[in-house]
Amino acid sequence: MTSTITTTTTTATAHTEAALLDLGTRAFQGLGLPPDDAADVARILVLADLFGLHTHGLSRAESYGERLNSGGINATPDIVVTDIAPALRVVDGDNGVGPVVGMHALRAAMEVAGTCGIGMVFARGSNHFGPVSPYSLLAAEQGYASIIGSNATTTIAPWGGGDARLGNSPLGFGVPNPGGRPFLLDMAMSVVARAKIRAALKRGEAIPDTWATDSRGVPTTDPRAALDGFLMPIGGHKGYGLALMVDLFAGLLSNAAYLTHVKSWVDAPDEPQNLGHFFILIDTRRLGSTAWLARRMNDFAAILHGSPAVDAERPVIVPGEIELDRLERHRAHGITLDADTMALLQRYAA
């Protein structure tokens, strides 16, 4: 009955950031998370939606909720942060929700970098932690440049291989710009995320043959065959090598699972994934004044923006510009989420 009532929420309704943060927090509290942890999850997922990354936004309440309800994720983890060296810490996430573990790691990295000028945090015992760019933005707003990565469920075949052995591990960079827009680069190691292929299947659309292969390793335009096959890495063998390096840092060095040791949240939703993340933060205030950094960042952007566009409709942009445009627009005018996501959030919140 509840689902029938809540799906009457029209997709034309624009919701404020504050309203979505409140609803998201209450929804994850309804799934058993303590208030502060629920707020951490909502903060990351709502930022993802504000960036326009809806496949990694509040719609994740579905997959997170299924695993919380099945016991595959610990709703009340005992997260432990351990000092390893003056600028190095390790976070044991105790199989908590990914954004909860991620926020613990981000706060630890900011604390260490604030003290030492640079800080590195490895996290283990985690799960899918959302996109990288929300963490990079939060760090940049506090004056920290960042390199952040996570490993993931295996969806990519080794270069020249015939089965999935490594994950579509995201990697992101952020550089603050005091008084202006930070640079934010957030990318996965495949040409596209599996979520885009699932969305194409749902819409009944074909996909480009550069996105994925079928189960035999042959490029395909059929999204269903692609979901049974493998994602294609960016840059061919170079993307394969980069994906391995992210997993070495996020999985192997953090003492988390890596490569095929990572459990699939689809195939084994009731088992811990033991994903790993890494956060490298630099306190840019140690390098120079905020005026110094702003001047150099604005000049950097101006050099790129000044390049004549080949297509007048597509001027040169810098990393994160599209997402930050969406963030400003959504904060000013609200954001629309699909009815199914709103219904699910309202049901959990109730």
Explain how this protein is built.
By secondary structure, this protein is of the alpha+beta class. The longest helix has 19 residues, at 98-116. It has helices at 2-6, 17-30, 35-50, 61-70, 98-116, 133-141, 194-203, 223-227, 237-252, 290-305, 321-333, 339-349; strands spanning 80-85, 88-92, 118-126, 144-150, 154-156, 166-167, 171-175, 183-187, 212-213, 230-231, 275-283. The strands form 3 sheets. It has a 7-stranded mixed beta sheet, with helices on both faces. It has a two-stranded antiparallel sheet with strand order 5-6. The chain has a two-stranded antiparallel ribbon with strand order 9-10. Strand 7 (171-175) and strand 8 form a beta hairpin.
The number of strands is 11
- Give the strand line-up of the largest sheet: 1-2-3-11-4-7-8
Which band does the percent of strand residues land in?
15-25%
Query: What is the distance, rounded to the nearest whole angstrom, between the alpha carbons of the first and last residues?
Result: 13 Å
Low-confidence stretches: 1-11
Please provide the ordered H/E string of secondary-structure elements. Answer: HHHHEEHEHEEEEEHEHEHEHHH
Query: Which structural class matches the secondary elements?
Result: alpha+beta
In DSSP terms, counting alpha (H) and pi (I) runs of 4 or more, how many helices?
12
The largest sheet, given as strand count, sense and whether it forms a barrel, is: 7 strands, mixed
The averaged pLDDT comes out at 93
Helix content estimate: 40-55%
Q: Which word captures the global form?
A: globular
Please compute the radius of gyration using only Cα atoms.
20 Å
